[in-house]
Design goal:
single chain; about 35% strand; binds zinc ion
C-alpha cells in the first residue's frame, strides 16, 4: 500500500491527483460537487455532507499562519534543524500542516505557497511570507535569499 507507481507517486488512488499536481507546483484541494466544501487532506468522501462526488480544484496558494513551532533537534536527515513547522489556514478553508521557509512569518501573518523539491519524490508545498500583499511592492527584505544553498 505504501508502494510508489511508475512515476514515483504514492500508490494511493485517493491522494494521487494531489501528488500529480504537486509535480507541476500546483496546490490542489478536494472540492465537493454537492455542497461546495473544500477539504484537505484527500479523503474518499466529503467531510461536510458525506457526499461521494468529489472533484479537484486548484487552490489560490494563499494562507494565514494559524500556529507554528520551531524544531531544534534533528528528526530526519533530510531536514537539519532549526526549521519551522506550521499549521496554515488556506484561503479556501482547510488547514494544512507544513513548513515556513525564508524570513519567519508570525502567527496571523499572510503566507503563500512555494515548493520544496525532494529527490525521487514529488515536491512538498511549504509556505513563505507573502510579499507585497498590499500591492505597494514594498518588501522589507532582510536577506532575500537566505534559504541555505542545498
Ligand atoms: Zn459535501
Amino acid at each position: 500500500m505504501t508502494d510508489h507507481d511508475a512515476d514515483g507517486l504514492p500508490g494511493d488512488p485517493t491522494t494521487a491527483p494531489f501528488w500529480r499536481a504537486a509535480r507541476e507546483h500546483r496546490l490542489v484541494l478536494q472540492r465537493c460537487r454537492t455542497c461546495g466544501a473544500h477539504q484537505f487532506y484527500p479523503r474518499p468522501f466529503c467531510l461536510s455532507c458525506f457526499g461521494l462526488d468529489l472533484d479537484w480544484a486548484e487552490a489560490s496558494g494563499r494562507a494565514t499562519v494559524y500556529s507554528k513551532t520551531t524544531v531544534r533537534i534533528p528528526v530526519i536527515a533530510e531536514m537539519p534543524p532549526p526549521y519551522v513547522v506550521a499549521v496554515v489556514t488556506l484561503d479556501e478553508g482547510p488547514r494544512l500542516t507544513t513548513n515556513l521557509v525564508g524570513s519567519e512569518a508570525a502567527i496571523g501573518e499572510r503566507v503563500s505557497v512555494t515548493w520544496r523539491e525532494r529527490a525521487g519524490l514529488p515536491p512538498l508545498p511549504v509556505f513563505q511570507r507573502l510579499a507585497g500583499a498590499d500591492g505597494d511592492g514594498d518588501t522589507d527584505e532582510q536577506s532575500a535569499s537566505q534559504t541555505g544553498a542545498g
